[in-house]
Design brief:
Blueprint: H1 5-20, E1 34-38, H2 45-61, E2 65-69, H3 76-84, E3 91-96, H4 97-106, E4 117-125, E5 128-132, H5 140-150, E6 155-158, H6 164-175, E7 182-185, H7 189-197, E8 203-204, H8 208-216, E9 220-225, E10 254-261, H9 266-280, H10 284-293, E11 296-301, H11 302-322, E12 335-336, E13 341-342
Parallel strand pairs: 1-2, 1-3, 6-7, 6-8
Antiparallel strand pairs: 3-10, 4-10, 4-11, 5-9, 12-13
Helix pairs in contact: 1-11, 2-9, 4-11
Length: 345
Amino acid sequence: MKQSLRLVLASGTALLTLGTSMAFAQEWKPDRPINLIVPWGAGGSTDQVTRVTAPILAEALGVDVVVVNQPGASGAIGTQEVLNAPRDGYTWTANAIANNATYHVSGLLADTDIDDWHIYLSVANVPVVSVPADSEFTDFGQLLEAFKTRGNEITVATAGVTSSGGTAIAALSGAADGFDYNMITYDGGGPAAIAVASGEAMVTTQLAVEQTELIRGGRLKALAVLSDQPLTLDGVDPIPPITNWIPDMELAPDYFGIFVPVGVPDEVVATLDKIWGEKVTTSDAVKTYAETFGAVFAPSFGAEARALAMPVVILEACSSLERGEAVNDPSTIGIDCETRTETAQ
């Protein structure tokens, strides 16, 4: 399961060319604004990349794409709002695909999985373990020892149990033979990172894109990136990989994008496929965002996007089961955790 982020993304890039030539019979021409629900607070990883991508779609469609933040229940409230909306193509959501795919496993949403969505991915993100600039911890090894000896005394700011930060700290605990911690939950990854920078909490494990400006500005000290490769940001010393301390930790890139519920008219999907293939995959704006904030530019859609998403979906679903946090067994969404593979439902 462990694999280099670069190798996974390279395979997706090779597949991408298959989708960009897709033809469609009828173009969708929306006649009113589209509601794009971000189920997290403003300033977080999902909100950031969505606000870069939405104008590209709006220009191509000729209508406004209105981004609405609707946080709560680790993204489940806003996601449920989209699932409840008419399937007419005018209500979308944005998230990390692993969240939408595993809400049923976590018990936050019933009877939903990855195949309830048409998937449009834009970037891959990695969590970073950071502490306040004046923290007592100067490297991850010191922090890891503190987790093992001080447990719940160590406060960790995240956007919730199923957020990227929440799953990252849980994965770290599991990979390090188990340690306790005190999670403090915020409405998004941005607020969680700011809380650590201001001293409200001792650690954050949110995504690099939510921390970059605080790291560059000297308010956060990055100790490790959850990758097997260092993370390089302009103006910052390379952030060492977590495998320097936990060599066997399972890792998979976390893909973010925009998702449209299955059941919308075929012409909506065909039109969005065409726009994504022609506009988003070549977007300088999205590429610049990724390069600036420590994400990986990785647009894809359709079957290839689903294939790229499954490693992190399987990892998060099975890790949740192993930690005893799963409300529903991953087999209910077609994942066999004994073999770490997808099965037919």
